[in-house]
Amino acid sequence: MGIVVVGSIGLDDVQTPHGSVRGVLGGSASFFSVAAQFFAPVSVVAVVGDDFPPDYLEMLRGRGIGLEGLEVVAGRTFHWHGRYGADPDRPVSLATELGVFQDFHPRLPEHHRREPFVFLANIDPVLQLEVLRQAEGLKVLDTMNYWIEGKRTELLATLRKVDVVIMNEQEARSLTGLSHIMAACEVIAGYGPQVVVIKMGEHGSLLRTPEDLFTLPGYPVDRVVDPTGAGDSFAGGFVGWLARRGQASPGAYREAMVMGTVMASFTIEDFSVRALMRADAEKMRQRVQRLREMTLLPSLDGLI
Amino acid sequence: MGIVVVGSIGLDDVQTPHGSVRGVLGGSASFFSVAAQFFAPVSVVAVVGDDFPPDYLEMLRGRGIGLEGLEVVAGRTFHWHGRYGADPDRPVSLATELGVFQDFHPRLPEHHRREPFVFLANIDPVLQLEVLRQAEGLKVLDTMNYWIEGKRTELLATLRKVDVVIMNEQEARSLTGLSHIMAACEVIAGYGPQVVVIKMGEHGSLLRTPEDLFTLPGYPVDRVVDPTGAGDSFAGGFVGWLARRGQASPGAYREAMVMGTVMASFTIEDFSVRALMRADAEKMRQRVQRLREMTLLPSLDGLI
């Protein structure tokens, strides 16, 4: 089954304790689509400027990612410059140049409106709502603190229309005012989305559905080179897997959490989408197996 | 197999968003021993003043907890006054009166020196080292930020002599200067203890042994009434279970992590040791089962 993603495609300058890069492929839709394309057909709705390197377009196209919904307009591409210190969950944004993204109004190409899955990356909730009106599939939404603080009312109106929300724990706390994550999950479910996914960085992630509560640790990578795009790669693995399974059952949601975790673990091992591009089925199987071993609770039946 | 615990027995005044109590039973050795006695014989080495309520001694004795190593001396009992806000991991200490604890020099009664398990609660690392010289069993140690910051050299000398260290993630970060918990675990193992257990509050806990890496979520309690003693109850369930199993195998360590998590989950549901005292085998079995369900990773064999 197919997925349409609406988000940013941009160019990043990133400094981390392990090195720095300039002008690399970034943006939520980039990480999402590269992660998801391992599992299902993906089409991107985004905008770039006429300065965007054709090589990056070729790279995405080479992966079979649909770019009919990608507008190329006169002006500069969205550009982010960030620096990470010791804490991978808290980058410092040194500069954010919106460029052509400033006037972006996403339009789903007609034949994408009936895709069974739509992912709304962390763009303005007003734009997200515009997209929701054009889409028919299972609606999955990400957001960020900038919108939680700046457009709370609009975000709450948008949340009422989605099936699944994926956010990180700081965002969940900020949205609900609750520090206890389980309690925050219940409140967020009350805002609309039946399914709530909370990403907690190294602490793993949590899935709450009407039938299920599931937790999972982060994958223990040896070296976090660059955390940029981890959340979008998680979402790509998650939605990609649901699309591949063609269902949104409790079992499929658990599987999707595992695959989201695995895809994020690749991303953080190198800059941009480099490590993600090197992923393959064998590496995925190894990481799934490792996660299964790490989380296998012994039975205490008959011992207590 | 028997356990000897060296720590504090005290009186607490606690305020939380769910209420407040005054003069209730507190202290690391209290929570530890009440949690551990469900699984194995426990003896306490601690000190209280002559103001200590006899009812509390009767309560501990009624649970079969050995008090031959408890000194009762003239003076005031250790007293802690704390307040919790929204974040259960960060209490505010309003007052700490050491009282008779100030001059405490733990002496293990002769017949306790060969207990197969010894737990050193978060007292001064110099005292912990004194105890280690008197003990022969498997040595499990807890510590706290106060000593990490104030007696780092002494703490490192003590860590070289222990088999298992249990600490929370803020302490692990503070001790190693590393924000990445997995990396911090490896560094701590290099200080001496073969087995490292990191407690992460609602985020669960992590076990690192030379053979194993295991993660486990926090138990999802409906209402955290008072987090005081959660860590010591975890340690009590953990060491208690190892003693019950009479082994320190990789499998027994995983089981012990589960039981530590379950015992901590009881403690935080009420003030002092109240909810912990109400625990029973049936409630434990239910919580172990719930944790197993929450963490059961689906197999993706043949699907990737």
Summarize the entry for a quick read.
Two copies of one chain form a homodimer. Chain A has helices at 28-36, 54-62, 125-134, 145-150, 152-159, 169-176, 181-190, 230-245, 250-267, 274-277, 281-295, and strands at residues 3-6, 10-16, 19-26, 42-49, 66-73, 79-83, 92-97, 117-120, 138-142, 164-168, 195-199, 205-208, 213-216. In chain A, 37% of the residues lie in helices and 24% in strands.
Tell me the total number of β-strands of chain A: 13
What CATH calls the topology of chain A is UDP-N-acetylmuramoyl-L-alanine:D-glutamate ligase
CA-CA gap between termini of chain A: 47 Å
CATH top level assignment of chain A:
Alpha Beta
SSE order of chain A in H/E notation? EEEHEHEEEEHEHHEHHEEEHHHH
Biggest contact: A-B, 41 and 41 residues
Gyration radius of chain A, to the nearest Å? 18 Å
The shape of chain A, in one word, is globular
Largest sheet of chain A: 9 strands, mixed
State the low-pLDDT regions of chain A, or none: none
Q: How many domains would you count in the coordinates of chain A? A: 1
Structural class of chain A: alpha/beta
| Average residue pLDDT of chain A | 95
CATH architecture of chain A: 3-Layer(aba) Sandwich
Counting DSSP H or I runs of 4 or more residues, the number of helices of chain A is 11
Strand arrangement across the biggest beta sheet of chain A: 5-4-1-8-9-10-11-12-13
Fourth-tier CATH superfamily name of chain A: Ribokinase
Q: Into which percentage range does the β-strand content of chain A fall?
A: 15-25%
Helical amount of chain A? 25-40%
Oligomerization: homodimer
